[in-house]
Structures are given as structure tokens and as C-alpha cells.
Specification:
The complex is a heterodimer of chains A (about 450) and B (about 450). With about 450 residues, chain A is mainly alpha-helical. Among the domains of chain A are: about 80 residues; about 90 residues, no CATH class. Helix content of chain A is about 65%, strand content about 0%. Chain A has 18 helices and 2 strands. In chain A, about 45% of the residues are buried. The N terminus of chain A is likely disordered. Chain B folds into 3 domains: about 170 residues, FAD/NAD(P)-binding domain, CATH 3.50.50; about 120 residues, 3-Layer(bba) Sandwich (FAD/NAD(P)-binding domain); about 130 residues, Enolase-like, domain 1 (2-Layer Sandwich), CATH 3.30.390. Chain B contains 11 helices and 25 strands. In chain B, the strands form 7 sheets. Chain B has a 5-stranded parallel sheet. In chain B, helix 1 runs parallel beside helix 7. Chain B is globular and about 70 Å long. The chains are: A mainly alpha (about 450), B alpha/beta (about 450). The structure holds flavin-adenine dinucleotide and iron/sulfur cluster (SF4) (2 copies). The site of one iron/sulfur cluster has 15 residues of chain A, from helix 16 and helix 17.
């Protein structure tokens, strides 16, 4: 009985220290939020730098403390306890509040940036230090975005701490966001070079291959600009197919991409909210491929236009481009994509809207060595895999029939394999020969969900 | 005629894994009318996942593997009703609510429910097992706001229940008859490892203890228990997880032979023509030597159904289980087993056993001393490929031959530490005259043995 007694007392003391930590962290979070609020509305009364930056700092410390106490005291198998019971993660009132606030923030950001003046001023010193120029709403956004990935990255690291795969992957998205999507573009501006994100490519950054952008890069960036154009083109047309051939879509979507980075970290508590129904899959296919088509067409039109010096298509193609920018770039990826995290799950944009995901998905489905293997007849149809698939893939459908999962939308996050209580799933790269072959230990149903 | 023709009506009682698999496989090969009658829930759900609903990992709708549209498209009719009686002479079922249902062929896949052993006080409020959806709902009410619970029985459902209760912060004590948790199945070292792990999760284990009686308070609720040794424990909930018994009561007087379960041969035929039974509710009349009389697992339910479907579709096939396998999870530690690894080894059996320092992972290869034949594999905290282990056992590999292919068997996620080297080191130290292979074996090469269209017998 010795061990039992010891662990019992140990758990009581850890309970008290956990409670203290929790209260302290909540206090810090509240102070931080107040500071940010004051920065936003009271910039005329008190320096927004003090309240805004200071508030953000206090908020960060508080959030880290809160995350620590909520994750560290739970063992790996306990991490999803209560997920569908707590209102914040099951579309309860606070989920709606967070959803509205996030959506509202995007609306202000895109269409009423003046209202964010206080907060923009708050980041002024940071902007000057990093970029050597005044802050603007996009810098404010980038700062918050990066901070969210870093802080919630710690959450993911603690939550999945028993898996080396997830530790390495989480560090990767944190690294690419901080280095490639925040520091490096800032540094380029500081050096008076064109702002360029080396971790984003056409067709996600659709304008990276627009004639206008290329013109500007080459003109303003000289040799470096030429390199940027070259880099973008190589990645879009060569590196992406090659890497996807070897590793599947995941090398980008859940290791490098910033949208994926936010989804895998800040969005992780909401991953189970994705819709698994057949109807949702139909919508997905009906939306995402037309968007890819739209980007390709727009790009082509712009090039034709530029070659013909505007004679052929006039301003039509420019209109095309700005329509896309408004509906897809702003409305979809920001407002719906992130704003609706707490309601529709963390990969709405990646699943329904992202042209890069569509492109990678086609490659993954038809020209890749990647698949998720199913372990013989071990599946007990429990449904954990499907529930925690952020892309809304009904993983169980395949697993219970002993089939590998090869789906265009799978971003290879690996969480299905992580939550499976019977170790049935494994993400792996192997020869394309017999890629669809299932286990001989199960008799299968030939019916397809979508044919 | 055993083969079902397209005019016939196949009725299945029970929509568990066995009933559902049978309906699916028969539908693949026949246009016959198929009706599935079940009382517990309108749609098939995963019984093995009930614990995750209680712990909040999933909602009930998430443990339902096939949505409504599936059954419609497959033209499998679902009837949500209780079968009161089977009339084998008139070939019809008497339902509680609906009109009598005629059948041409009947398959009983009625599953099992919690078994009680006549303990004093077992009917008190707060005492229950965990098998059905109704049990789960009852457990919600029975455990609301309570502080202490006792679980009787140290098997797989017992530890699941413990995990469920811990997730609500309830103090849990388990009464276990053996010296260690699940020691009637696991060898000493594995049982010790799992026992320690369960204790680290704050569960109190009373080993070599049994339930004597359950004590009541004034309101007829449980207030505690007394053990065989006379120890009194206060608790507001008692979980009974000492096994399951087949659901066969409604068959009394139907003329179908029943002992503990419905008696069947290796074709799942009962003594009545056109009536079959399979999975949890059955008992084999003449099990093959060394095979159990009853198999009450998810996996065997599916295998039974695949075999019976084949017979019903005209390809009469005796049930052959093939190499045994099973898996489970004890809090953070996954367990897999392939072949037979008994709790106690005979004189002829010897094993290679490896365990990490933190006692969270273990591998055991059991083999026969003289012949070096591989008998079974136990794994804790490490995943192996089922297809390959099955192949080794089915084809009668020696330990040496299996270990030559060891690098291909691991199924852990990418970047995970591999422990096979340590096991091999142990092996070549024990048998210094044996030589490591010249070529590293690779899963994708070995996999070619099991072609796209092969089945389990050829693999
Ligand atoms: C909590 C729990 C966890 C488990 N975990 C595992 C595991 O991890 N791995 C594993 O291999 N096995 C596990 N098992 C065992 C496994 O779930 C069973 O062996 C399997 O579900 C049996 O399937 P079945 O189709 O035979 O019967 P069931 O799933 O029991 O289905 C039978 C159905 O028939 C219905 N029925 C019975 N009588 C009538 C009637 N007269 N009229 C109408 N309907 C009727 C019942 O209500 C029931 O819905 C677990 C069992 C439990 C209870
Ligand atoms: S199928 Fe698995 S790896 Fe792919 S997106 Fe879904 S959870 Fe992630
Ligand atoms: S989580 Fe694992 S056992 Fe459960 S349905 Fe998915 S693959 Fe099967």
C-alpha cells in the first residue's frame, strides 16, 4: 500500500499548489487584458506603450502560468478530459463570446484600422526596433499572431509531451512563424528591402506570382528581389511537388505554414469541432477546388494582361484580383477562418478555402508516398481519431476496415494517431506501389463515402 | 440450403459489432432482405468507447460509426425494439412494441451484460456494472457528486471504470483477487509494471482481496463495502466488473440449446435449423483443444461474423480464429499481445524480456525451448505491426527467424526512440553462436508477401 498512500498525499499537495498557480495566473491574465483595453481606448490619458506592451507582457506570463498548471498536472491520456463537457470547448456561451470578439477584431483590422490606433501605438517601439519604421495595423496583427503561436505552442508542447513527433512538429511551426513570418520580414524592412515571407508561396500568397509583385520585387529588391522571385517560383512549382511526393502535405501544412501553425497551437483546443458529416465533405470539395481554379485563372489573366499591356483584358483582371483579395484573402481566411475557431473548429480556412491546401492535396492524393497506415485488425471503432481530426476526416471509416487513409485534405497533423487508444494509426511514407492495400486481416466494405 | 437466396429474409438480433459486421458482409454478396433488431440503441455504437463519453472526450453521437444514410444506402432495415420471444416453429420473432417479425434465417448476436455473483447488497442503489448504454447513463446519475468508489474485479473493464471515475476526481479503490492486477493474464513482470502504473494514477489497489458484502444506508443506497478479510471501506458507488454473461434469458422455451451461452458448432449453427448465433452470447459446443469455450471480445465478434457471412453466402467455412491478438490501454500505457503469452510459463517455455528504466515500456518474446518456435509477444507502451506478427505466428516462425525481421515490426510514430537494438543485444548475448542478419529487413519489402487481394489465411 506504500505507493498508493504516497501518491495520494502527493496529489493533495499538488492540488493546492495547482489552485494557487491557477488563481495567480487568472489574476495576471485579467490585469494584462485590462492593460490592453486601456491602451486601446485610453491612449490620450496614459502612454499606450506602457499599458499595451506592459499588458501584453503580463498577459503572456499569466497565460503561460495558466497553461502550465492546466497541462502539467494531467497525464498524457488525461489531456482531453472534459473537452466535450466544458462549455468553452463545446460551443457554449464563452465560445460564442470568443468567436464574436475574434471576428470583430478582424473586421476592425481589415475595414476600420483607425479604431485600433491605441494598440498600434503600443507596438510602436517594437516596430521601430525590429523594422526601423512606424507601426501599422499589420504589424500589430503580426505581433499578436506570433505571440499566440508561441504561447499556445507551449500549450501543445505540454499537452503532447509524450510524443517526440508532436514536440518536434510544434517547435517547427513556432520557429517558422517567429523566424520566417515575423523577424525576417521585419529585418528586410529595416534594411530597406521588400517585405517578403519566405515561408509563404503561391497559390496561398497568390500575389507572389502576379506580374505586379514580381515587377516590384525586381525593381525594389535588386539582386535580393530576383532571388525572392526565384525562391517563390521554385517553391511553388518544384519544391512543393518534390517535398509532397516524399512526405505528403504535412511538410507544409503542419510544419511550416503560419495558418497551420496557428491552427495547431491556438486552435488545438477546438480541433474536435470540425464537421465530420458527408455533407461537410461535399461542401469542402465544392468550395476549395473552385478557389484554386480562381487563383490560377486570376494569375493567368494578370499575366496575359501584362504581356498584352492591358490591351487584351483591360481592367477586368485587376478587378478579378481585388475581388479575390476581398472575399478569400480577408473574409474567408481571417474573419471566418480564425474568428470561427471556437465554433467550427480550427481548420475551416485550411479545409474549405486555402488554394495551397487544394494544390498540396491533389499532389498528396495522386503523387505522394505518404499515407496513414492502419494496424491490422486492431481498431475498436471508438471514434477518437475522427473526433479529433481537425480536417473533419472520418478516419475511423477507413481504420475499422483496415484500410490506409489517403485523403487530399489530411494535413498530417498526426493527432488521430496520437489519440487512438489502440495504437492503430501511423503516419508514414512508403513506396507508392500498393499504396491503397489494406490489411489482409480484415474483410472490407467496398462502399465509398464520396465516390 | 445454407446459402441465403435473394428472396429470403435474414433477421439479426443485436446491432453490436457482430450483428453489424454480419449484415455488412452478407449485403456485399447478396440481395436478400436484411433486418437488424436491437433494443439498446437505434444505431450501432462502439461499446468499447463508452468510457470516452463519460470522460468527455466524445459525445454519444461520436461513438456511432455509421450514420443513418449508410444503412439506407445499404438497404439494411433497422428496428429499434426488444425481442420478447423467438418462435422457431413459426419462424417469427415476437417484439415488445412492433408486430411479429417473420424470418427465413435468424442470427442471434445479442451480446452480454454484467455478471453478478450473489453478493449481499448487490441490488442497492449505486451498485452497477458497465456494459450497456443504459449502464453508462446510470453511472452518470450514480456518480454525481460522490467522493469515493470501489471497483470489484481487476480486469480490463475494471481499469476503464477506474480511469473514468478518476477523471471526475473520485477516490477509487479496486479489489483484486490476484497478487497483482490482471495477473491471471499477464506474466509477473508485465503485471507488476501495470500495477505500479495504476497506483501512480492515484488508484488504491487492494490485492488478494474480494468482496464480502455491500453495506446500505437508510435510503437504500450503498454506503460502503466489507471485504473478505473483514476490512470496511466507505464508498457511495460500487462498480462490478467481474465478467459478463450472455444475454439469453429471452430464449428460454424457444427450443434453442443454451448452457452458459447459446450452444453453437464451428459454423455458428445452433441446434435449430436456420438459427445461428455468434460472438458474446455464444458458447462453443466443442472448442478446439486449447481454444476457449467463449470469446467475448470486439475483435472475435467481428471474426465470427466474417466467418458466418461466408457460410451464409454459400462458402461454408468453419471458424478458425488464427493467431490470437488483443490490445488495451491502462491509463497512459498501451498494451498489445500477439499469439499466446500465458501468465505462468511451462518448463518448455522461455522468454526474452526487455523493460525500460522508467518502467513504462516492455517487450516480451515467448518461445519454446527445444524448437525455438515463437509462441507469443507482449508489448507495453510500444506498438508492433499486427500483419507481421500474425504472419510470424501463422507461419510458425522460430524466434531467430522472427528476430531477423525485427527492424520491420515497429509501428510507433516517426521520431520515437526504438528499443529493438536492446532486445537484440539481449538475444545475441543469450545465444552467442547465432548470427545477426546481413541485410536489414524493411517493412515495405516484407509487406509484398501480403498482396492486395490476399486474405488472412495466406498471410
Ligand atoms: C466497457 C467495455 C469495454 C470493452 N472494451 C473492449 C476492448 O477494448 N477490446 C475488445 O476486444 N473488447 C472490448 N469489450 C468487449 C466487446 O465490446 C464485446 O465483446 C462486443 O461488443 C460484443 O459484441 P456483440 O455484437 O456480440 O454484442 P453487443 O455489442 O453486446 O450487442 C448486442 C446487442 O443486442 C441487443 N439485444 C440483446 N438481446 C436483445 C433482445 N432480446 N432484443 C433486442 N435486442 C437485444 C443488446 O441490447 C445489444 O445492443 C468491451 C466491453 C465493454 C462492456
Ligand atoms: S487524418 Fe489524422 S493526420 Fe490527417 S488531418 Fe486528420 S487527424 Fe491530422
Ligand atoms: S481511434 Fe483508433 S481504435 Fe478508435 S476508431 Fe480510430 S483507429 Fe479505431
Amino acid at each position: 500500500m506504500q505507493t498508493a498512500v504516497i501518491s495520494e498525499t502527493a496529489s493533495t499537495t499538488s492540488n493546492t499548489s495547482q489552485n494557487v498557480l491557477k488563481m495567480v495566473s487568472l489574476l495576471l491574465i485579467s490585469i494584462g487584458l485590462l492593460g490592453i483595453l486601456v491602451a486601446a481606448v485610453g491612449a490620450n490619458y496614459i502612454s499606450p506603450v506602457l499599458t499595451g506592451l506592459g499588458g501584453t507582457l503580463v498577459l503572456t506570463i499569466g497565460a503561460l502560468l495558466y497553461i502550465w498548471q492546466s497541462r502539467w498536472y494531467k497525464s498524457p491520456a488525461e489531456q482531453n478530459h472534459g473537452r466535450w463537457q466544458q462549455e468553452a470547448t463545446s460551443r457554449g456561451p464563452s465560445a460564442w463570446v470568443i468567436g464574436f470578439v475574434l471576428t470583430g477584431f478582424y473586421v476592425l483590422l481589415y475595414w476600420f484600422p483607425d479604431t485600433l490606433q491605441g494598440l498600434i501605438q503600443a507596438t510602436e517601439p517594437l516596430s521601430q526596433w525590429l523594422r526601423g519604421r512606424p507601426s501599422d495595423q499589420w504589424f500589430l496583427y503580426g505581433t499578436f499572431y506570433t505571440l499566440a503561436i508561441l504561447v499556445m505552442g507551449v500549450y501543445a508542447l505540454l499537452k503532447y509531451r509524450n510524443s517526440r513527433y508532436h514536440i518536434i512538429r510544434t517547435i517547427s511551426v513556432m520557429f517558422f512563424q517567429l523566424g520566417f513570418a515575423f523577424l525576417l520580414p521585419g529585418l528586410l524592412l529595416m534594411l530597406n528591402k521588400p517585405e517578403y515571407y519566405f515561408s509563404y508561396f503561391w497559390p496561398l500568397k497568390y500575389d507572389y506570382l502576379f506580374p505586379g509583385t514580381i515587377d516590384y520585387l525586381v525593381r525594389d529588391g535588386a539582386a535580393l528581389g530576383v532571388f525572392m522571385v526565384f525562391w517563390g517560383a521554385i517553391f511553388s512549382f518544384l519544391a512543393t511537388p518534390v517535398l509532397t511526393y516524399f512526405y505528403g502535405k504535412r511538410w507544409y501544412c503542419s510544419w511550416v505554414c503560419g495558418c497551420g501553425g496557428l491552427a495547431e497551437t491556438a486552435g488545438d483546443p477546438y480541433r474536435h469541432l470540425s464537421d465530420k458529416s458527408r455533407k461537410a465533405w461535399r461542401w469542402e470539395v465544392a468550395i476549395i477546388y473552385p478557389i484554386l481554379g480562381f487563383v490560377i485563372l486570376t494569375t493567368l489573366f494578370l499575366w496575359i494582361n501584362s504581356w498584352s499591356e492591358g490591351r487584351l483584358l483591360g481592367d477586368l483582371s485587376g478587378g478579378f484580383a481585388s475581388t479575390y483579395g476581398f472575399f478569400i484573402g480577408a473574409m474567408f481566411s481571417g474573419v471566418v477562418g480564425v474568428g470561427f475557431y471556437p465554433l467550427m473548429g480550427n481548420r475551416v480556412w485550411c479545409r474549405f478555402g486555402c488554394p495551397m491546401a487544394a494544390y498540396l492535396g491533389l499532389l498528396q492524393k495522386h503523387f505522394s508516398r505518404f499515407r496513414i497506415s492502419t494496424n491490422g485488425g486492431q481498431c475498436i471503432s471508438c471514434g477518437n481519431c475522427s473526433t479529433y481530426c481537425e480536417m473533419g476526416i472520418d478516419v475511423r471509416w477507413y481504420a475499422q476496415q483496415g484500410e490506409p487513409i489517403i485523403r487530399a485534405s489530411c494535413v498530417g497533423c498526426g493527432i488521430c494517431a496520437h489519440v487512438c487508444p489502440r495504437g492503430v494509426l501511423k503516419l508514414e511514407n512508403g513506396p507508392r506501389e500498393d499504396r491503397y492495400a489494406g490489411s489482409p486481416l480484415i474483410k472490407r466494405d467496398e462502399l465509398r463515402i464520396l465516390s | 440450403m445454407e446459402k441465403i437466396n435473394s428472396q429470403e429474409h435474414l433477421v439479426i438480433i443485436g446491432n453490436g459489432i457482430a450483428g453489424v459486421t454480419l449484415a455488412q458482409r452478407v449485403r456485399q454478396g447478396s440481395d436478400c432482405r436484411i433486418t437488424m433488431v436491437s433494443a439498446e440503441s437505434p444505431l450501432h455504437f462502439s461499446r468499447t468507447a463508452l468510457m470516452y463519453v463519460y470522460m468527455g472526450h466524445m459525445r454519444f453521437q461520436d461513438i456511432v460509426p455509421y450514420a443513418d444514410w449508410y444503412w439506407q444506402e445499404q438497404q439494411i432495415e433497422l428496428v429499434h425494439d426488444f425481442v420478447e420471444r423467438v418462435d422457431t416453429s413459426d419462424k417469427k420473432l415476437v417484439l415488445r412494441d412492433g408486430a411479429p417479425l417473420p424470418y427465413d434465417k435468424l442470427v442471434l448476436a445479442t451480446g452480454s451484460s454484467a455478471a453478478y455473483y450473489d453478493w449481499p447488497g448487490q441490488a442497492l442503489k449505486g451498485v452497477q456494472g458497465l456494459v450497456s448504454l443504459q449502464d453508462l447513463e446510470m453511472m452518470e446519475t450514480n456518480t454525481a457528486g460522490i467522493a469515493q468508489a470501489v471497483i470489484v474485479g481487476g480486469g480490463l473493464i475494471g481499469v476503464e471504470m477506474a480511469e473514468m471515475l478518476r477523471s471526475r476526481g473520485i477516490v477509487v479503490t479496486m479489489l483484486i483477487r490476484d497478487k497483482l492486477y490482471w495477473h491471471n493474464v499477464l506474466p509477473q513482470q508485465e503485471a507488476q509494471l501495470v500495477t505500479d502504473h495504476i497506483r501512480q494514477h492515484g488508484i488504491e489497489l487492494l490485492l488478494q482481496e474480494e468482496l464480502q458484502e455491500i453495506l446500505a444506508d437508510d435510503a437504500g443506497r450503498v454506503r460502503g463495502i466489507r471485504t473478505r478479510a473483514g476490512k470496511e471501506l466507505s464508498c457511495q458507488f460500487v462498480g462490478i466488473t467481474t465478467g459478463v454473461k450472455p444475454n439469453v434469458d429471452f430464449l428460454k422455451g424457444s427450443g434453442i440449446d443454451i448452457d452458459r451461452g447459446i450452444l453453437v458448432n464451428e459454423f455458428f449453427e445452433t441446434n435449430q435449423p436456420n438459427v445461428y448465433a455468434l460472438s458474446d452470447c455464444t458458447q462453443f459446443r466443442n472448442p478446439a483443444p486449447g481454444q476457449p469455450m467463449m470469446e467475448q471480445l470486439w475483435y472475435t465478434g467481428r471474426l465470427h461474423a466474417e466467418a458466418l457471412a461466408s457460410t451464409l453466402l454459400g462458402n461454408r467455412k468453419a471458424y478458425q480464429r488464427g493467431p490470437w491478438f488483443n490490445s488495451a490501454k491502462f491509463f497512459d500505457i498501451e498494451y498489445q499481445t500477439y499469439g499466446t503469452v500465458p501468465a505462468q510459463f511451462t518448463e518448455q517455455q522461455e522468454s526474452l524480456y526487455w523493460q525500460n528504466k522508467e518502467a513504462t515500456k516492455a517487450i516480451r518474446f515467448l518461445y519454446e525451448k527445444g524448437t525455438d518456435k515463437l509462441l507469443g509477444i507482449n508489448l507495453l507502451g510500444i506498438r508492433y505491426r499486427h500483419d507481421l506478427c500474425h504472419h510470424w505466428l501463422q507461419q510458425g516462425y522460430t524466434l531467430h527467424a522472427a528476430l531477423q525481421e525485427l527492424p520491420a515490426v515497429n509501428f510507433d510514430p516517426e521520431f520515437f526512440q526504438r528499443y529493438e537494438e536492446e532486445l537484440l543485444h539481449q538475444y545475441y548475448t543469450r545465444f552467442p553462436d547465432r548470427q545477426p542478419p546481413v541485410k536489414h529487413s524493411n517493412w515495405w519489402e516484407l509487406r509484398k508477401r501480403f498482396g492486395l487481394f490476399s486474405d488472412s489465411t495466406s498471410c
